[in-house]
Design goal:
By secondary structure, the chain is of the alpha/beta class. It contains 19 helices and 15 strands. The protein binds pyridoxal-5'-phosphate (PLP).
C-alpha cells in the first residue's frame, strides 16, 4: 500500500488552482504560499494519524485562514462589566477631544521638537509636561511610558547603588509582574524594608536612616487593603523626617488622581494633597483615574525631576507624539474643569437616577424585541478597578438576564463584532451599562438579541 501522503498535491500544484491564485490579490502571494504550506503540513499530520483529508476543502480552508490572519488583532470591544478602569480591556477610553488630537498628530507632521516662533529646535517637554506642572503648581513634570517606568527612572536616577526605605506594608505587586522590590533591584537601588505588613511607624523609618540612604519611598497599595490592626505614616510626617535627613520623599501613587474628588473617589489619595504635605516627587499612571493614554507622570521639585530627564533611561522611556497629543488634550480638560468630558470620570460620577433610567430603557427595549425575556434591573456595584481604588465600589444597577446557559451567551457575545464583554454570576448574565459608551447602546442591544437568538 502506498503512503496516502504522497497523493497530496504539491504547493505549486495547489497555487495554480484559480481560486487559490486569486487570493494573492487581497492577501499578497507570500501570505497565500504560507497558508497553503500550513494546510499541507496539517493534512500530512492528519493522514499520518490515520484521519481522512478532504483535498477539495483546501480552497475554502485556506481562504478562511487568510481572512482570519488579515483581521486586526486589537479591536474595539464593548465593556459591559461595570469595571471602569479595566486593565485587560485597555484601561481608560480617551475623551473625544483627545482621540481627535491623536488622529491629527498621527497622520501628519507636528512641532514635536520644533519651536515655531524661532524656527529652531524645540523641546518635547514644552507640550504636556508644562501643562501638567502648571495644573499641580509644581516646579517640574516629566512623562514616560507608564508608572512602572516612572518608578524605575526615579530610583535609577536618585538612588542607584544606595538605599531606599520602604514600608513592608507597601511592598506590593500591582499585577502584570510589577513588583516594587523587583523594580528597585533592577534600578540598582538597595531596598531597606521597615515595619511589618500591617504596622509601620515613623520611628521604623527613622531607625533605618543611614549615610547610604538615598530616598524614602511611599507606595499606594492600590489593589489591596490591609484592614484591622494597622498603622502607617502620614505623608506629612514622613516628609518632615525626609527633610530632616536631607533625602527626597518619593511616592508611587499609581491611580493618577490629580486633585481631591467627590463621590466614590473621595477617599482616594491624590497628587495635590501629597505635594501639599511635602512629598518631593509623585509618580502616577496616565490611564487610570486621570482618564488619559498609557503614561507615567512624574511631578515635583525640579532638583529631583531635572536629573531624571538627563538620565539616558529617560530617552528609552519617553512618550511618543501620539501619547503626548492625547495627554495634553486630557490635561486641558482637567485644567478647565471639564471632567464630564473625560469618560472615566463621567462614568464614575454618573448620578444613580440617570444610570437607573438608562438601564430601565434598555431593559424595555430588550423586552420589546423579545417578549417574555427574563430581564430585570437589579442593584449592582460597579468597580473602579485597574489597581486604582481597591475597595471602592460605585453603587448602581445592572441588567440581570436569567438564561438557561449564561456562560454560552457570554461566549457568543464575545464572538460578536464588536465583541461584548459581560459578567456571569449567580447563574445569570449581567450587563452593567455604566461602562458602555453612549454611542454603543444600540450595538449592545443588537448584540444581546443576536446572542439570545
Ligand atoms: C497601577 C500602578 C502601577 C503601575 O502603573 P502602570 O502605569 O501600569 O505602569 C504602579 N504603582 C501603583 C501604586 C499602581 O497603582
Amino acid at each position: 500500500m502506498s503512503d496516502p501522503r504522497r497523493a497530496l498535491p504539491s504547493v505549486d500544484r495547489l497555487l495554480a488552482r484559480p481560486a487559490l491564485a486569486a487570493l494573492a490579490t487581497p492577501h499578497g502571494r507570500p501570505a497565500v504560499v504560507g497558508a497553503v504550506r500550513d494546510w499541507l503540513e496539517a493534512a500530512r499530520a492528519a493522514l499520518a494519524a490515520g484521519r481522512a483529508v478532504e483535498p477539495e476543502s483546501v480552497e475554502a480552508e485556506v481562504a478562511q485562514v487568510l481572512a482570519r490572519r488579515a483581521a486586526p488583532s486589537l479591536v474595539r470591544v464593548i465593556n459591559a462589566t461595570g469595571v471602569v478602569v479595566h486593565t485587560n480591556l485597555g484601561r481608560a477610553p480617551l475623551p473625544a477631544a483627545a482621540a481627535e488630537r491623536v488622529a491629527l498628530a498621527a497622520a501628519g507632521y507636528t512641532n514635536l521638537e520644533f519651536d515655531l516662533a524661532s524656527g529652531a529646535r524645540g523641546q518635547r517637554e514644552t507640550h504636556s509636561e508644562a501643562r501638567l506642572a502648571r495644573l499641580l503648581g509644581v516646579e517640574a513634570a516629566a512623562t514616560v511610558n507608564n508608572c512602572a517606568a516612572a518608578v524605575m527612572l526615579a530610583l535609577d536616577t536618585l538612588a542607584s547603588g544606595r538605599e531606599v526605605i520602604v514600608s513592608r506594608g507597601e511592598l506590593v505587586e500591582i499585577g502584570g509582574s510589577f513588583r516594587i522590590p523587583d523594580v528597585m533591584t533592577r534600578s540598582g537601588a538597595r531596598l531597606v524594608e521597615v515595619g511589618t505588613t500591617n504596622r509601620t511607624r515613623l520611628d521604623d523609618y527613622r531607625r533605618a536612616l543611614t549615610p547610604q540612604t538615598a530616598a524614602i519611598l511611599k507606595v499606594h497599595p492600590s489593589n489591596f487593603r490591609v484592614s484591622g490592626f494597622t498603622e502607617s505614616v502620614e505623608p506629612g510626617d514622613l516628609a518632615a523626617l525626609a527633610r530632616e535627613a536631607g533625602v527626597p520623599l518619593l511616592e508611587d501613587q499609581g491611580s493618577g488622581l490629580l486633585h481631591p474628588a467627590a463621590g466614590a473617589l473621595s477617599g482616594e489619595p491624590c497628587a495635590a494633597r501629597s505635594l501639599a504635605a511635602g512629598v518631593d516627587v509623585v509618580m502616577m499612571s496616565g490611564d487610570k483615574l486621570l482618564g488619559g493614554p498609557q503614561a507615567g507622570l512624574i511631578v515635583g521639585a525640579v532638583r529631583f525631576v531635572a536629573p531624571m530627564r538627563k538620565n539616558p533611561l529617560y530617552r528609552a522611556l519617553r512618550l511618543d507624539k501620539l501619547r503626548i497629543a492625547a495627554l495634553d488634550a486630557v490635561l486641558d480638560l482637567h485644567e478647565r474643569g471639564r471632567l464630564d468630558e473625560v469618560p472615566v470620570r463621567r462614568m464614575l460620577d454618573e448620578p444613580a437616577a440617570a444610570g437607573e433610567a438608562r438601564a430601565r430603557a434598555f431593559a424595555d427595549a430588550l423586552r420589546g424585541a423579545r417578549p417574555g425575556l427574563a430581564v430585570e434591573v437589579r442593584p449592582a456595584a460597579s468597580a473602579v478597578g485597574g489597581g486604582a481604588a481597591p475597595d471602592v465600589e460605585v453603587p448602581g444597577v445592572a441588567l440581570h438576564l436569567q438564561l438557561a446557559d449564561p456562560g454560552a451567551a457570554a461566549a457568543r457575545l464575545r464572538a460578536g463584532a464588536p465583541p461584548v464583554v459581560a459578567r456571569v454570576a449567580d447563574d445569570a448574565l449581567w450587563l452593567d451599562l455604566r461602562t458602555v459608551l453612549p454611542g454603543e447602546e444600540d450595538e449592545l442591544r443588537d448584540a444581546v438579541l443576536a446572542a439570545l437568538a
